[in-house]
């Protein structure tokens, strides 16, 4: 079989028939198989390793838009990074890895870093600015 094309003003491909069963697209490789599937037992959209749905999931997305990654996450490659932003539950609270500045920026109403007894404990509130203008210096400004 060659190319499959679906035409029309609102093309749609439906896999499955609304019954309790896994619906799968299988990539049958020479050395390794991968799948994209609806895992009906978990009601998750899954990208996985192998040919049996649910046995070796790599990424799973559930009905609440929660994503699970079952392995390491790499953003960019060495010497070619990307910005990565994690938002908190409070408005305007986030952590940003800024690839162009090679900096980790913390923008939050409170900042709390905890370590072990030998580590670092740093706590700040909304009126505190923490910066590192050089590699060997940390500045803390309290407004």
SSE topology sketch:
Elements: E1 23-28, E2 33-39, E3 44-49, E4 57-61, E5 67-69, E6 84-87, E7 94-98, E8 103-107, E9 111-113, E10 122-124, E11 128-131, E12 139-142
Antiparallel strand pairs: 1-2, 2-3, 3-4, 4-5, 6-7, 7-8, 9-10, 11-12
Q: If you had to describe this structure to a student in words, what would you say it looks like?
A:
The chain is mainly β and 143 residues long. It folds into two domains: 1-73, no CATH class; 84-142, no CATH class. It contains no helices and twelve strands. It has strands at residues 23-28, 33-39, 44-49, 57-61, 67-69, 84-87, 94-98, 103-107, 111-113, 122-124, 128-131, 139-142. A five-stranded antiparallel sheet has the order 1-2-3-4-5, with no helix packed on it. Strands 6-7-8 form a three-stranded antiparallel sheet, with no helix packed on it. The chain has a two-stranded antiparallel sheet with strand order 9-10. The radius of gyration is 23 Å and the shape is elongated. The relative contact order is 0.08. The mean pLDDT is 85.
